[in-house]
Write a structure and sequence with these properties.
The structure holds two protein chains of two kinds. Chain A has four helices and seven strands, in the order H-H-E-H-E-E-H-E-E-E-E. By secondary structure, chain A is α+β, with helices and mostly antiparallel strands. Chain A has a domain at 33-53 and 93-177: Hotdog Thioesterase (Thiol Ester Dehydrase, Chain A, Roll), CATH 3.10.129.10. Chain A starts with 15 loop residues before the first helix and ends with a strand. Chain B is an alpha+beta fold. Chain B has a single domain (24-147), classed as Hotdog Thioesterase (Thiol Ester Dehydrase, Chain A). In chain B, 17% of the residues lie in helices and 32% in strands. Chain B contains three helices and six strands; from the N terminus they run ββαααββββ. Chain B has helices at 34-37, 52-57, 67-82; strands at 24-25, 29-31, 90-96, 105-118, 121-131, 137-147. Chain B is elongated and about 55 Å long. Classes of the chains: A alpha+beta, B alpha+beta. The interface between A and B is large, with 48 and 55 residues. Strand 4 of chain A pairs antiparallel with strand 3 of chain B, so a sheet runs across the interface.
C-alpha cells in the first residue's frame, strides 16, 4: 500500500526484518529522560579521557567523507601505520574532538531528552593532535539563557594531552534544549 | 595540485601572504546521505538524524544532519586552502541557522574578508557558509588563520 506518510524505509531500502529492528530500536530510546536544561547547573565541571585511536579517526573521516591522507593511521592491508602529515605522523581532523564534547558536557550515564540541537560553536584549534593521543576533554557549564523563548545551555571546553599537558583545543558551544 | 601528493592538500595550503581580501575559496560539495547521518559515530541516540518516521512525528520534513557534519565540511575546505596553518592557532566560529535535510546537496563557501599584519605574515579572516542547491544558507561563520607568520 502506498502512502505519503514517511516510512522507515523511505530513504534507504530495507526488508521487513530491518524495519522491525529499526522500530524496536527507536522505541527503546524513549526511556525516561531529562532535558539538557534540567541536567545542567551553571558551574558544573565534567571531564573524561578519550583515546583517539587510528580506527576512531577513520570512523569520523569516513562519516564526513574526508579522505585526506594526513588523517590515516590505519589503512586496509597495511593496518596500523605511522602515517604522514605536514607535522610528521598522521594527525586528527581539526574538529574531531569537538564532536566528542557531547559525550562529556552532560552526565553520559543518564538518558537525556532527544531532540536538543547544537546551535553554535566558537573553536580554537591550537595545536595538531597526533593520531593515538589520549586527550582529556573538560567542560564547564558557564551559562543558561533564554533567547526568543528558546532555552540554551553554554559550555566552555578545553582539550589537553593527558601525557604532555599540551592544550590542543578550546571551544565555547551552545545547545538549544527542549 | 601536486600529482605526487597522494590526493592530500598542499602542506602550506593555497592561500599565501599575497592572497587579497575578496579572494573566493573553492568549496567542497556533499550529499546528506542517510547512511552517513545514521553512522554510529554520531551516537544514533537521536532518531531525528536518521529515522524518517520519528522525524515526521516531531514535525520535521525529513531527518536532519547533525551540525557537526556541516562544520567538518567547512573545516575540510579550510584545510584545502590553509594546509598546515589551519592546525595551529586557528579559530573557527559556526552558527547553525537552518537544518540540513536528508538528500540535500550541500556546498561550502568562503571569502577572504580581512587580513591583518602579524609577524612576518598575516592573520586572515574568511567568512564561511554552507548552502543547498537552492542557495539557502544552512551554516554561517568565519575562520581566522595565520599565514606566513
Amino acid at each position: 500500500m502506498k502512502t505519503d506518510e514517511p516510512q522507515t524505509d523511505s530513504l534507504r531500502p530495507m526488508t521487513d526484518i530491518q524495519i522491525r529492528q529499526t522500530r524496536e530500536f527507536v522505541a527503546s530510546l524513549n526511556s525516561k529522560s531529562q532535558t539538557y536544561w534540567d541536567m545542567v547547573t551553571v558551574g558544573d565541571e565534567l571531564s573524561r579521557d578519550l583515546h583517539i585511536t587510528a580506527e576512531l579517526v577513520i570512523l569520523y573521516a569516513d562519516a564526513v567523507e574526508d579522505y585526506n591522507p594526513w588523517y590515516e593511521g590505519w589503512l586496509m592491508n597495511l593496518w596500523h601505520i605511522e602515517g604522514n602529515s605536514p607535522f610528521g605522523p598522521a594527525i586528527v581532523p581539526p574538529l574531531l574532538v569537538s564532536h566528542f564534547v557531547l559525550s562529556v558536557q552532560f552526565d553520559h550515564t543518564k538518558p537525556f531528552a532527544i531532540g536538543s540541537i547544537h546551535t553554535f560553536h566558537d573553536s580554537e584549534i591550537l595545536e595538531p593532535i597526533p593520531v593515538g593521543a589520549t586527550v582529556r576533554i573538560t567542560t564547564r557549564a558557564i551559562d543558561k539563557f533564554v533567547k526568543r523563548e528558546r532555552r540554551y545551555v553554554r559550555h566552555a571546553v578545553t582539550v589537553t594531552d593527558t601525557a604532555r599537558g599540551t592544550v590542543y583545543f578550546k571551544e565555547t558551544r551552545d545547545i538549544m534544549s527542549l | 595540485m601536486n600529482s605526487s601528493n597522494n590526493g592530500a592538500p598542499q602542506p602550506e595550503g593555497l592561500i599565501t601572504p599575497d592572497t587579497p581580501v575578496g579572494h573566493t575559496l573553492t568549496g567542497v560539495k556533499k550529499k546528506a546521505a542517510i547512511q552517513l547521518m545514521g553512522s554510529r559515530l554520531w551516537g544514533r541516540f537521536n532518531p531525528n538524524h536518521w529515522d524518517p518516521v520519528y522525524a515526521a512525528e516531531t514535525g520535521l520534513k525529513a531527518p536532519i544532519q547533525t551540525g557537526e557534519m556541516s562544520s567538518a565540511y567547512l573545516a575540510e575546505m579550510c584545510v584545502n586552502h590553509f594546509g598546515r596553518n589551519f592546525f595551529t592557532n586557528a579559530r573557527m566560529v559556526c552558527k547553525y541557522i537552518a537544518s540540513t535535510e536528508a538528500n540535500e546537496v550541500i556546498t561550502t563557501h568562503g571569502v577572504v574578508s580581512e587580513k591583518k599584519p602579524k609577524g612576518n605574515g598575516f592573520r586572515f579572516t574568511v567568512d564561511i557558509w554552507t548552502d543547498n542547491e537552492a542557495g539557502e544558507k544552512k551554516t554561517v561563520g568565519w575562520v581566522e588563520v595565520d599565514v606566513g607568520v
